[in-house]
Specification:
The chain has 35 helices and 16 strands. It is an alpha/beta fold. Helix 10 runs parallel beside helix 12 and helix 22 crosses helix 23. The protein binds adenosine-5'-triphosphate (ATP) and magnesium ion. It holds the Pfam family UvrD-helicase.
């Protein structure tokens, strides 16, 4: 009764309330976008604390990104106010996994200060192992092995558990051996990769039931957001933690768990040792045997008031009354978008089975989007076959229709979106309102699409931030390429020279580099000059000397060509002749294609500048732009990293066959791939509160080649009554809304502009040579432009930082 008028509860609808107030036993909230699932989780945490059902440290909340965890902490803080006794464990699977693993590192053969390897390190280690096995690393690239191993780890498979047939596919049957060797090598290096953060945790729990039990007893309440995107390893990990705790005595339960004394600040970083827990670790007697000396010490060291009020403790239930684990998962099968990374939407469908007696709550009212937006998104997702199906309704007004705009090309697309944002700001200002840029997002399918927007916004002086990944010009391959250009433009740029002197590998080892540095310092000359001087003497060993001489000759040649050639052509020559492009071409990894694509995009972006100097100046301005976090800014991110977020206005560019749905997904996974793409489109539209604006470009240059595009099939799946069709400002022609073939959007965007570039002519020629609308196949296959890996691992993996 006391609870019924708590302010945070009265804000909820009856179903949401049920999900919040059902604190005992398993609860699944299965509901569509914007129905308040995350809000339910947050409120539930506040409620648990408010009702004195657990101490903060007895709550484990798993979010999909660190950003989401931060937001949740803030909101809980606002609702609960003065809970000074620390915060629940909130974070991603990875960040919580690493926290646990550090405390018991010795038990899995690591030291507590183990390092977390990033992908590059991982590949370097694997490469050595591949070579040590006598395998040709061109035929059996380390990156492919890395992907295989990640896949196994996502599925919770240790080397022994990998199916023999599967492992045999790599390295003439040596896959398993290599995986085993890799794990051993990591132990010697005192390192773990991302997959290990969970896999080793699972192993730890399985091999040490007492450790597992500590955590099972500790976490009285487990909450999981975005449950539809958990993979097998995450699922296993959750299952272990959520098993029923053996009954303990009432006294023990009424006391804070022995592990509860940490009271760490919410900002506590992953790496920091957690004093309270170290203490607790020495305590290996089950809580049921009453206050142990260790427990007493714990209590003495961290006395109240930080511990919360007496009343709260008195209200704690005895664990013996709790028959089932209090786990609450929320998710939406229609938003499962990580299947390609091993997520199993089945986890959500199986919940009932895994947690018998689970209360399943369905929420149908969407509080986020206005009517047209929600209707369009619902109609789109209805085209998927593999779904549970659910109703979504809003009591909001119909609002604006989903706007679909055809642009001539991607440049016009960026220009039009920039103008629309400015327009919205002007209109708001005229009404005497504020149109905060924080409420505007641009959600792209592939990260290469970002470059055009970044450049446009810089020109406009419009603040933006790229979320979940580096900005275009900060990507490693772009920095490398820029370093070459900088050395050509300013031979004294030591930092740039250092960056590329041995990239790609030219056999210039540490010794040679040290020599360069020594010479440069002694003679007070730039490194390039030192290189030129040293390559002419025999102080250096012949091999590095030759390599250095060749490189310096190239730089000499490029410097001359700079005077005669257009700078973008020069850039292409440099990247080719230096072997840099080749380095990525030979690299058969998943993200190599994306990097090559980014390089092409870089060269293409240079066209817009008069000369190399102008271009480089532009870049330094871009790089310098401080991305002050408190500044209002447009967010640019991939659709994948937009999950769970919401904005007043959402721009969705690039809705073209081949790009979205993207070709690789269709090629690799067929119908399942298409359905995942469609869910991604659904996620995109449902991010919008008031305005969803979809764009497609009739022409897009990919790999430096023009291709003409067919509008995405998803556009046809949006019911006409919820859509408003526009043409970008630059266009003058009409629309082919009907009678232009199977797609009512087919001819849009292909009219009117006055462009007559060779690219356009090529595009013209290609148009009509069949395409999705008449042959069932997209017109172009932009292989490898979709660097999913970089976007997906974005926020999620910030555990390493
Ligand atoms: P997604 O599937 O996209 O993650 P979700 O189901 O997690 O969405 P939330 O983000 O929790 O949805 O909620 C969507 C929006 O609706 C938020 O702005 C939230 O504050 C608001 N909201 C949720 N429930 C209510 C309610 N009962 N009354 C008013 N606003 C609500
Ligand atoms: Mg959510």
């Amino acid at each position: 009764a006391r609870a019924s008028n708590l302010p945070y509860l009265t804000d909820l609808n009856p179903e949401q309330r049920a999900a919040v107030e059902t604190l005992d036993g398993p609860v699944l909230v299965l509901a569509g976008a914007g129905t308040g699932k995350t809000r339910v989780l947050t409120t539930r945490i506040a409620h648990i604390l408010n009702m004195g059902r657990a101490h903060p440290s007895q709550i484990l909340a798993v979010t999909f990104t660190n950003k989401a965890a931060r937001e949740m902490k803030e909101r809980v803080g606002m609702m609960v106010g003065a809970v000074a006794e620390g915060m629940p464990w909130m974070g991603t699977f990875h960040s919580i996994g690493v926290k646990i693993l550090r405390r018991h590192a010795e038990m899995v053969g690591l030291k507590s200060d183990f390092t977390i390897l990033d992908t590059d390190d991982q590949i370097r280690v694997l490469k050595q192992l591949v070579e040590a096995e006598g395998l040709d690393d061109k035929r059996w690239p380390a990156r492919v092995l890395a992907m295989l191993i990640d896949g196994w780890k996502n599925r919770g498979l240790t080397p022994e558990q990998v199916p023999a047939g599967e492992a045999a596919s790599f390295g003439n049957g040596k896959g398993k051996k290599l995986y085993t060797a890799y794990q051993e090598r990591l132990k010697t290096l005192n390192a773990a990769d991302f997959g290990d953060l969970l896999l080793e945790c699972i192993r730890l729990f399985r091999q040490n039931p007492d450790v597992l039990k500590q955590y099972q007893q500790r976490f009285r309440f487990i909450l999981v957001d975005e449950y539809q995107d958990t993979n097998v390893a995450q699922y296993l990990w959750l299952r272990l933690l959520s098993q029923n705790v053996p009954s303990t005595s009432p006294q023990a339960a009424a006391q804070p768990s022995p592990l509860a004394g940490e009271g760490g600040s919410p900002e506590q970083s992953e790496g920091e040792p957690d004093e309270g827990f170290e203490l607790a670790d020495t305590f290996d007697m089950p809580a049921s045997t009453d206050p142990s000396p260790a427990f007493a010490a714990d209590a003495a060291q961290a006395p109240s008031p930080a511990r919360g009020e007496e009343s709260a403790q008195a209200a704690l239930p005895s664990a013996s009354q709790t028959h089932q684990k209090n786990i609450c998962c929320v998710g939406d099968d229609d938003q499962s978008i990580y299947g390609w990374r091993g997520a199993e939407v089945d986890n959500i469908l199986r919940f009932d089975h895994d947690f018998p007696g689970a209360k399943v709550v369905r929420l149908e009212r969407n509080y986020r989007s206005t009517g047209h937006i929600l209707a369009a998104a619902s109609a789109l997702i209805a085209h998927n076959e593999g779904r549970l199906g659910k109703t979504l309704r809003t009591e909001d007004e119909l609002g604006e229709k989903v706007q679909v705009t055809g642009a001539w090309d991607s440049e016009e697309e960026a220009r039009a979106i920039g103008e629309e944002i400015e327009q919205m700001q002007r209109e708001a200002r005229d009404r005497g309102e504020d149109h905060p840029l924080d409420e505007v997002a641009i959600l792209v399918r592939a990260s290469f699409q970002m470059r055009e927007f970044e450049d446009r916004f810089i020109q406009l002086g419009m603040p933006y931030r790229v979320i979940g990944g580096p900005r275009f010009y900060e990507r490693a391959e772009i920095r490398d390429a820029l370093a070459y250009l900088r050395v050509v433009a300013q031979p004294a740029d030591d930092l740039a020279f250092e960056r590329i002197v041995n990239t790609p590998k030219r056999g210039l080892g540490d010794a040679a580099l040290q020599m360069l540095h020594d010479y440069a310092r002694k003679n007070k000359v730039p490194l390039t000059e030192a290189a030129r001087a040293l390559s002419a003497t025999d102080e250096m060993k012949p091999k590095p000397r030759t390599a250095l001489r060749t490189l310096m000759e190239s730089f000499g040649r490029w410097a001359k060509q700079k005077e005669t050639l257009p700078h973008n052509e020069l850039a292409e020559i440099i990247l080719d002749e230096s072997g840099y492009t080749e380095m990525w071409q030979k690299d058969r990894s998943a993200d190599a294609a994306g990097r090559l694509e980014n390089l092409k995009e870089l060269v293409r972006s240079m066209e817009e500048f008069e000369n190399l100097q102008g271009f480089l100046e532009h870049i330094s301005l871009v790089m310098d732009r401080d991305s002050a976090d408190n500044e209002q800014a447009v967010s640019i991110m991939t659709l994948h990293s937009a999950k769970g977020l919401e904005f007043d206005t959402v721009f969705l560019p690039g809705w073209e066959e081949g790009l979205f749905p993207h070709q690789r997904s269709l090629d690799d996974q067929g119908r399942a791939g298409l359905e995942e793409e469609r869910r991604l489109a659904h996620v995109g539209i449902t991010r919008a509160r008031k305005r969803a604006k979809i764009y497609f470009a009739a022409n897009r240059r990919i790999h430096g080649l023009w291709s003409s595009n067919v509008p995405s099939r998803f556009l046809d799946e949006l019911p006409e009554e919820h859509v408003e069709v526009k043409e970008a400002a630059g266009g003058t022609g009409g629309f082919g809304m009907s009678g232009y073939g199977p797609s009512r959007f087919d001819e849009m965007g292909s009219f009117g502009s006055t462009y007559s570039t060779p690219g356009w002519q090529r595009a013209q020629q290609r148009r009509g040579k069949g395409g999705f609308s008449d042959s069932g196949a997209p017109r172009y296959v932009p292989d490898g432009v979709f660097d999913q890996d970089s976007d997906a691992y974005a926020d999620d993996d910030a555990a390493s930082s």
